[in-house]
Design goal:
By secondary structure, the protein is α/β, with parallel strands linked by helices. It folds into three domains: 81 residues, Orthogonal Bundle (Arc Repressor Mutant, subunit A), CATH 1.10.10; 103 residues, D-Maltodextrin-Binding Protein, domain 2 (3-Layer(aba) Sandwich); 108 residues, Periplasmic binding protein-like II (D-Maltodextrin-Binding Protein, domain 2, 3-Layer(aba) Sandwich). The protein has twelve helices and twelve strands. Strands 4-3-5-12-6 form a five-stranded mixed beta sheet. The protein has a three-stranded antiparallel beta sheet with strand order 10-7-11.
């Protein structure tokens, strides 16, 4: 093939190519890049002309990369990383001069804690920084950080993840919650009443919490009534308000809605967890990533730091010591807190 003029290629085209490789969809690539679908389609046509290859073919499952595209993908990834390093200003990162896109994975509860204040800070300095907040359940968090699909994770873990840089934001534990005027709100939860009450829970496959609960109950010959699987704590709170289901959730999430919920100890033991911020260690020297990490640490530091592991709201501390114990084994995995 004849040599092609490098002037036919620009950084925007490479970013579009990378987004199409990652998303396998023109619409999702457009959302990822904050562009319109026609703009991404037009850039794809330019890429095809430049490389003399279709690069992506439409199938029933989305846009599948050709062999040429798969061969180009790691080269483009490396070029984009080098360009990002080249353009990084020497010294401190200046958010007022940046239009960078930060992609962060975290729960809806974490977004409530972070995003309002972070948005205020960006508006105050006139920054054009854009933030894409994603749920942490979309594939392996570790892999997505390593691949550069995410900049940061703000998630809950029982044990620190391997191969990632980690800062602990706070420690917490799980409680049993239902609406304040639930028929069982005045009673101490037992294994039997816990298992008989319909449960709202985070969907299987997105959280190790559900496996821990079911495993702990199974070892004592019990099985709970799981009725509705949802994807966020906000959805769970909405359903608790309206019916007679119950849920296991982090103490901090329950406390944020303490005026509407009855909160008590679980009738079995679960390991506590740590709410962490994590990132790929290779981005340690990235001034922009470091700036965002500092903002998150500062905002969390300004949040309520009420000690956890102490008494539950509305629960006699003596009641906890008399509960029946089940050994829930610790496991490494994302818990959505």
């Amino acid at each position: 093939m004849a040599n092609r003029d490098i002037r036919s290629l620009d950084v925007g085209m490479l970013r579009t190519f990378d987004a199409l490789v990652q998303e396998r969809s023109v619409s999702r690539a457009a959302a990822r890049l904050f562009l319109s679908q026609p703009a991404v389609s037009a850039t794809l046509n330019r890429l095809r002309d430049t490389f003399g290859d279709p690069l992506f073919t439409r199938t029933s499952h989305g846009m599948e990369p050709t062999a040429r595209a798969l061969a180009l993908a790691p080269l483009v990834d490396k070029v984009l990383a080098n360009i990002a390093t080249l353009l990084e200003p020497e010294g401190a990162f200046d958010p007022a001069q940046s239009d960078r896109i930060f992609r962060i994975a975290g729960s809806d509860h974490a977004s409530h804690l972070l995003l309002p204040e972070l948005s205020r800070r960006l508006l105050a300095c006139g920054s054009e920084i854009r933030i894409v907040w994603e749920p942490p359940g979309g594939g392996s968090l570790r892999d997505r950080l390593h691949k550069g699909e995410l900049d940061l994770g703000v998630v809950a873990r029982i044990q620190p993840p391997l191969d990632l840089a980690v800062v602990v934001l706070y420690a917490d534990h799980y409680v049993y919650a239902m609406r304040r005027h639930h028929p069982l709100a005045g009673q101490t939860a037992t294994l039997d009443t816990f298992c008989a009450t319909p449960q709202i829970f985070l969907g299987y496959g997105t959280s190790t919490l559900e496996d821990l609960i079911d495993g702990a109950l199974a070892r004592s010959g019990h099985r709970r009534h799981t009725q509705i699987a949802l994807s966020t704590f906000g959805q769970i709170i909405d359903l608790l308000r309206e019916g007679d289901c119950a849920a296991v959730m982090p103490w901090r999430v329950a406390q944020a809605h303490r005026n509407e919920l009855h909160i008590q100890a679980l009738p079995f033991d679960l390991p506590g967890y740590k709410h962490i911020m994590c990132w790929d260690p290779r981005t340690d020297a990235d001034a922009g990533n470091a700036w965002m990490r500092d903002q998150i640490l500062d905002i969390y530091g300004a949040c309520d730091d009420t000690p956890h592991g102490g008494n539950f709201t509305g629960v006699d501390p003596q009641r906890r010591t008399g509960r029946r114990r089940l050994n829930a084994q610790s496991a490494n995995g994302t818990l959505r807190g």
